Amino acid sequence: MSIAKPTVKPADPRFSCGPTAKHPGWSPANLDWSLMGRSHRSKEARARIRDLTARIRRVLGVPDDYHIGMTAGSDTGAMEMALWSLLGARPVDLFGWEAFGLDWVVDTMEQLKPAGARAFTPEYGVLPDFSKADPKRDCVFTWNGTAAGVRVPNGDWISDAREGLTICDATSAVFVMDIPWRKIDVLTFSWQKALGSEPGHGTIIMSPRAIQRLETHTPSWPIPKLYRLANKGRVNMEFFDTEVINTPSLMCVEDAIDALKWAESIGGRPAMAARTKKSFEVLENWVARTPWIDFLARDPATRSQTSVCFVYSDPDYLGLNTARRADFAARVYALLESERVALDANAYKDAPPGLRIWCGATVEASNVEALLPWIEWAYATVKAEVFAPA
After folding, report:
1. Domain CATH for 183
2. Are 343 and 221 contained in the same domain?
3. With CB atoms counted within 10 Å of each terminal CB, which end of the chain scores lower, N or C?
4. Are 169 and 143 in contact (CB under 8 A)?
5. Residue 214 has what pLDDT?
6. Domain co-membership, 190 together with 46
7. First vs last Cα of the chain: how many Å apart?
8. Residues in a beta bridge with 169
């Protein structure tokens, strides 16, 4: 049965899981444009890059002995840098349960092909069995599966006495989820996720153990210049200060600094986490009272509070074949998009059909609340059409 069309729209309909919405109050006027057209090697530009790195360290609480570098290619570039530069010294365990984690499985096992690699890849909606992680081996995993809405609840499974390195893609987790730094040797993220900053650049954070690996291990495969952190055992430590391997956009640097200033102004990472939780709880309460929708993540303890993924659980919908389910979900999203109430909120292309709502810190909970009646209207409208009497 159809329901009345809502009248109040979200003030900001951008719920994309990346690039994500800009922080409240964002304006181009807030950015320092004085370095546009300047060399990234100038002393002024180096000072800005150093400022960016220092703000990342403060907001995230990165230990003083960990090293922070800026990469090209967003989180993908940062993760590829870690994989190409560090793997091969030991066998590796790879944990991937959605699109992006599976990318690291494929790249490692089909491109680099280190000896003794093992992959643990369950279906969408559940985590792999981390108890199978061998502390004698390297470990590659994502903290939050953006395309599946499934997160690692904690780092308790990571051994404090591990001999291998832990390499973590945390791009949709960092800034809002607790990261146990001493259990992580390499962590990567992109600026366009939790910060809502401009895309194209990423960050790689490396522990002293990871630096030691660079100094003592030369991979058997050739390393492209874009990922090369060491040459004959000599680590380019300037990369972790103000140097970059590829020319960065200083406009993107300024935008990331602006986002970090906003983060600091509201109270840093704890405040960002609280904003995220508030938006997620709006959705959690809605799902509890709405019988035809559910989280893709089956276990409440593993549900992402940033990239929140939904599937339809209505028995009528579930009675449709695979193609008709996909068409049904596409029509629901098309209505939301046409009304400009939810932009870029469709499920990831490889995930089960449904919706995906970003609830990171730059999203206002009031916008999430305003969206829900529109989802109910769109779903009821499509269902009435699909199941109308012949």
Report:
1. 3.40.640.10
2. no
3. C
4. yes
5. 95
6. yes
7. 16
8. 142, 188
- Residue 116: which domain range? 31-264
How many separate domains does the chain show? Answer: 2
Position 1 scores a pLDDT of 57
Angle between helices 74-86 and 99-106 (to 10 degrees): 30
Which residues are bridge partners to 14 per DSSP?
343
pLDDT in tens, 285-341: 999 999 999 999 999 999 999 999 999 999 999 999 999 999 999 999 999 999 999
Residue finishing a domain among 229, 264, 299: 264
Residues 237 and 351 in one domain: no
pLDDT tens-digit series, residues 13-45: 999 999 999 999 999 999 999 999 998 889 999
Residue 9 falls inside a structural domain: no
Question: In Å, how far are 77, 185, 271, 292, 306 from 179, measured between CA atoms?
Answer: 21, 11, 15, 34, 15
Q: Is 0.85 topped by the overall pTM? A: yes
Tell me if the bond preceding 19 is cis, omega within 30° of 0.
yes
Within a domain: residue 22?
A: no
Q: Using 50, 70 and 90 to split pLDDT, how confident is the model at 383? A: very high
Dihedral over alpha carbons 194, 12, 347, 76 (to 10 degrees): -30
CATH number of the CATH domain containing 318: 3.90.1150.10
Closest Cα to residue 195, out of 249, 304, 279, 269?
Answer: 269
Residues 63 and 185 in one domain: yes
Average pLDDT, the chain: 95
Closest CA to 310 of 342, 281, 348: 348
Burial class of 8 by CB neighbour count within 10 A (0 to 12, 13 to 18, 19+): exposed
